[in-house]
Specification:
225 residues, alpha/beta, Rossmann fold, Arc Repressor Mutant, subunit A, 6-stranded parallel β-sheet, 6 strands, elongated, transcription regulation, CheY-like_superfamily, DNA binding
């Protein structure tokens, strides 16, 4: 007689593996304890500075590194740049007290896919980690508006390159800011193919031969400040 089988169990969802980098032990340990209590999140290691973060990211290959900016020795911006260069699949979420535009955009240029201010709530931090682990880019509410305003500027004025569509002007602003097609796709939640097609249309409409010439034309018009 065949033994009756119980209900089929679903395989548990894969843990999102996280490395935390912060030079303040109380904050770092508290965040590790908090995240470790969240189902679906595993804190794989902690680092007290940027050099340790780079080493741990290379050794542990986590899904996400949560990175402070101001740390002794190697700072969070350079650490982010090295981690992304060595392991592009690792997402970096910057979690910092720094609200200034220079730090925000330096982190984006270094390859960070998330940017939150310290003081963000548990739900916001977990949402950012989860989103970045799945290849998305995410910014906290406190900085998202500044990102939008930064790239809007002259690009919202339809008298500048009127032959471009609003979406093409938005993409041109990001091109002028030095973002790659992949970074633009992540920032605007578009497919890389859609971005490539838009960039080709921009080149044709501006009568430029390549990306470098498009950047020069765009910056002369005030894009990509």
């Amino acid at each position: 007689m065949r033994e009756q089988q119980g209900p089929e169990r679903q395989a548990p969802a894969r843990q999102v593996r996280v490395v935390l980098a912060d030079d303040h032990p109380v904050y770092r340990d508290g965040l590790a304890l908090l995240l470790g209590s969240i189902p679906g999140v595993e804190v794989s290691g902690t680092a007290a500075d940027g050099a340790q973060a780079v080493a741990l990211a290379g050794e542990l290959q986590p899904d996400v590194v949560v990175m402070d900016v101001r740390m002794p020795g190697l700072d969070g911006i350079e650490a982010t740049r090295r981690i992304v260069a060595d392991s592009p699949h690792i997402g970096v979420v910057v979690l910092t007290m720094s609200e200034d535009d220079a730090t925000l955009f330096a982190a984006m240029r270094a390859g960070a896919r998330g940017y939150l201010l310290k003081g963000a709530g548990q739900a916001e931090i977990v949402r950012a980690i989860t989103a970045v682990a799945h290849g998305e880019a995410i910014f906290g509410p406190a900085v998202a508006r500044r990102v939008a305003d930064f790239f809007a500027g002259p690009a919202s004025d339809e008298t500048v390159f009127p032959q471009l569509t609003p979406r093409e002007r938005e993409i041109l602003a990001l091109v002028a800011a030095g973002r790659s097609n992949q970074q633009i796709a992540s920032a605007l939640f578009l497919s890389p193919k859609t971005v490539r097609n838009n960039v080709s249309n921009i080149f044709a409409k501006l009568h430029v031969a390549d990306r470098a010439e498009a950047i020069v034309r765009a910056r002369e018009a005030g894009f990509g400040r």
